[in-house]
Amino acid sequence: MIAPPQVTGPKPKPKPNPQIVPPRATPPTKANKQQWQRTFLGKAKGVNFQLRIIRDPSGQLLGRYFATPGSGKSWHLEGVLREDNSFTLKGTDNKAIFEGKFGPDGRRMTTSFTNKTTQGEFHVDKMTMMFAFVPVKPHPPAGTQPTSADHLPSDSDTQAPATLQAVQALAQALGKPFNQTLVAQHMPLILRSCSSAGIIDPNQIAYVFATAVWETNGFRSFNEKYMPGWTAKEYFEQSYGPSPSRLLPKDSRRIAAGETQQSILAARRKRNIEELGNTEPGDGYKFRGRGYVHLTGRAVYQKAQYKIIIPSGIKRNGKVPDIVEMPDLASSDSEIAALILGHGMAKGTFTGRKLDDHINSKEQDFMGARAIIGVDSAGRIAQGAAAFVVATQAGDPQDQQASTITEITSEREREILRIPVGGYTAAEQQNMSKGLEIGSLNGIPAYYNGKREATTWGSSFSKDGSLYYGFKWQCVEFVRRYTSLNSGRYISHRGDASTFYKASLPDGAGTFDGLKQHRNFDLKTGLKVGSHTKPQPGDVIVIGTATYGHVAIIAEVNDTDIVVAQQNVGTNFKEQISLESKDDRWILGGRVLCWLSK
Questions:
Q1: According to the model, what pLDDT value does residue 304 have?
Q2: What gap in Å lies between CA 364 and CA 201, rounded to an integer?
């Protein structure tokens, strides 16, 4: 075989091959300095993953993951978060790789997972992982050296303050007291119960806390209260016993509505025996409401004992506690109370309805979720849960949480605008009263009000009728309904849109409902000088008009303009307003009077 001749001199450049597609450039790392730490949970191929991530100011990621079943060890990861929110995390002490992308709200991510070991390769093509709370872990004693699993800061460093803040927000929304010491005492027990019950969806955790705060009056009362003028035994026997013979103070409304004493007592007797299982004299008092959910009735105590307490393996003095024989344990033992709360809501122990029936990956029905416990105060508890969610939302991993604005098609817009021609028919009026959607912000729709600003289609209320939103479908109604459903913050201020602006208040001063007013015009000179505070998504914007004024919700903000979502401006649901920065102030264009922030 003859060897090829040696070639000397510079090598010729290869000709480009049009069939070869050059690889795409990797999106750059963002240059902002935002830092955060979050925990995500997911499951694939029978394996539960817990992934904890820290982002540093340069965009680099540090992480640690646990997999169960597995060795019981945690494994260190390092990687990068890119401009398009994609990421790669690689193991430094094993060959694990997570590669995926954060969702736009920062609460979910999709990722693949691969790990090569001496036993072979474990691979997951696609797994959804969700931002979640994890049980708070105590700090190690002073002087103790951290273990290999503690290379990252403890979850208690970040989760506890976030959850405390969230509980405070929901307590405010519910009108319940907030005591940080009490919350710090009960919060870890509830988080542990949620974790052991498989409750990792942040919305479900929010509803669990909202239920507990509502039922216990902010962790102050773990036993159901009775009315003044009654002894505890006689009140609870008449409320829940098998032989009620006296009306209760709360029955006055039913009597006023035309019900008879006989029918009220007969219905109560039937419920107490058949639903609560209170068949023996004294059962009403013995099995009165206790705990984080105010567990009520012999039958429900028995369900909790056999479906929750016994399977949990919890022991007291070497024995499984029996809440049927010793029902006071449901309130006096906080760990037992927390087990009943979390596992009961997850399993549907109380009414047959469970969290997954109302709060899951497809829906967030905080109103309907009250059926898990009962039916009363559904609207208020839903408000609290929503406030908790907003307070704990991490936002986008790199930036503020993006708003989701949905607009109707041009064809649908033309169809809506044709409706008033020739006057409304009865059917058209009914449709208008129900609401003709012109767009939505974060899933909350705005409706068409017709061509006349002053038109109304009746009063608008929350689903349970407990909250008044305003006149259908005026601008104030959308602002009040949006803030209530999106953040759990109810605007109780009454008056048309012009009254939302208080001309005498200086920039940054507190106004109604705990809001702050940021002026666009100087208080003394009347010149447009702006505010020191930049408008943010979710703020209420107030605009001057020649009639009743106008209010809207700020949906998007950048350094040159804002986008607002609004109602009662024909079909013009989405509108852009200029924004400029000058002399350390933010100035909005047009006739903007102010914006209101929490």
A1: 96
A2: 11
**CB 137, CB 156: distance < 8 Å:** yes
The answer to whether the CB of 284 falls within 8 A of the CB of 290 is no
What pairing do the DSSP bridges indicate for beta strands 561-565 and 74-81? unpaired
3-state secondary structure at position 9: coil
Bridge-partner residues for 39, per DSSP? Answer: 52
Q: Dihedral (C-alpha) 480, 483, 489, 494: value to the nearest 10 degrees?
A: -20
Which two structure tokens, joined as six digits, stand for 235?
């009140």
Q: Which two tokens stand for residue 310?
A: 């016994």
Q: How far apart are CA 482 and CA 565, in angstroms?
A: 10
Res 138: pLDDT: 35
**Count of beta carbons in the 10 Å neighbourhood of residue 351:** 15
- For residue 538, the SS3 value is coil
Q: What is the DSSP string of 188-224?
A: HHHHHHHHHTT---HHHHHHHHHHHHHHHTTTT--B-
Give the burial string for 530-553 (b: 16+ CB within 10 Å, else e).
bbebbbebbbbbbbbeeebbbbbb
Q: Tell me the C-alpha to C-alpha distance, in Å, between residue 186 and each of 166, 204, 217, 528.
A: 14, 17, 13, 50
Are the C-beta atoms of residues 67 and 94 closer than 8 Å to each other?
no
Separation between Cα atoms, residue 116 and residue 139, nearest integer Å:
33
Domains and CATH numbers, the chain: 36-131 (2.40.128), 155-222+334-402 (no CATH), 405-597 (3.90.1720.10)
Phi, psi of 234 (to 5 degrees): -70, -35
Label residues 207-227 b or e (16+ Cβ within 10 Å = b): bbbbbbbbbbebbeebbbebe
* AA letter at 478: F
Give every residue of the chain whose pLDDT is below 70, as ranges: 1-35, 57, 72, 105-107, 132-161, 392-403
Whole-angstrom distance, CA of residue 456 vs CA of residue 234: 50
Tokens of residue 141, six digits: 């004693």
pLDDT value of residue 62: 84
Over the Cα atoms of the chain, what is R_g? Answer: 29
What confidence tens digit (pLDDT) does each residue in 257-273 have? 899 999 999 999 999 99
Structure tokens belonging to residue 438: 């012109």
Q: Which H/E stretch holds residue 277?
A: none
**Over the chain, what is the mean pLDDT?**
84
Q: Where are the alpha helices (DSSP H) in 462-531?
A: 475-487
N- to C-terminal Cα distance for the chain? 85
Task: Give the strand pairing for 459-461 and 108-117.
Answer: unpaired
pLDDT score for 15? 52
Q: Which of 203, 168, 194 is nearest to 389 (CA)?
A: 203
CB neighbours (10 Å) of residue 54? Answer: 16
How far apart (Å, rounded) are the C-alpha atoms in residues 399 and 36? Answer: 11
